[in-house]
Amino acid sequence: MPTTRRARVPFRRDDAVETTVSGTTVDHLTETYRAHYRSLLGLAALLLDDTASCEDVVQEAFIRVHSARKRVRDPEKTLAYLRQTVVNLSRSALRRRILGLKLLSKPMPDMASAEEGAYDQLERDALIKAMRGLQRRQREVLVLRYFADMTEAQVAETLGISLGSVKAYGSRGIAALRVAMGAKA
Predict the structure, then answer these.
(1) Where are the alpha helices (DSSP H) in the chain?
(2) What does the radius of gyration of the chain's CA atoms come to, in whole angstroms?
(3) What does each of the 185 residues of the chain score in pLDDT, given as a tens digit?
């Protein structure tokens, strides 16, 4: 069996340069803009809901294809590239819009109004004043128990008093606070 050799065609450097240089020209893109701007705007309008976004998408599509015109080797495919770019940009715009709606739909944390904040401050001031009116041991027990969030056993150990004393001082301190706070209200 004789083997046939394929004739090698020498690679010409001029051909490679010519194919990379060829592409969509600015004139062809300008003509495509004049002829197909309205249809591309209609395409974007089918995908998006407001005119301003549609115009932005179509303009951005032309800008992107213009900057990549050397890669569009066949000028007849320019319109196809533009259509695909309009579709992709419309999808991106919708994604951003949906993400924005998701972020906006999350309820804002409840914030106290200025009046509530002032009222809370008044209550806090009244509580501090009432706490100052307690006996020293009652104040210490209540502060450690309720503000430092210690157990009765931890308060007893910290103050060096018995568990029963902690309960008694705590009970008497709360009763005194009720009287002092009730008189203020």
Answers:
(1) 13-21, 26-47, 51-67, 78-105, 114-132, 136-142, 152-159, 163-184
(2) 40
(3) 455 444 444 434 444 333 334 567 888 888 888 999 999 998 888 888 888 889 999 999 989 988 887 887 787 888 888 989 999 999 999 888 888 777 766 666 666 677 777 888 888 888 888 888 999 899 999 988 988 888 999 999 989 999 999 999 999 999 999 998 886 54
pTM of full prediction above 0.85: no
Given a contact cutoff of 8 angstroms between Cβ atoms, the answer to whether 75 and 88 are in contact is no
Cα torsion for 159, 162, 163, 167, to the nearest 10°?
Answer: -80
Give the C-alpha separation, 40 to 149, whole Å. 67
Please give the structure tokens belonging to residue 8: 């090698």
The domains of the chain, with CATH numbers, are 14-105 (1.10.1740), 126-184 (1.10.10.10)
Pair of tokens at residue 73:
């080797």
Query: Which tokens belong to 84?
Result: 């695909």
Question: Cα separation of 164 and 156, whole Å?
Answer: 9
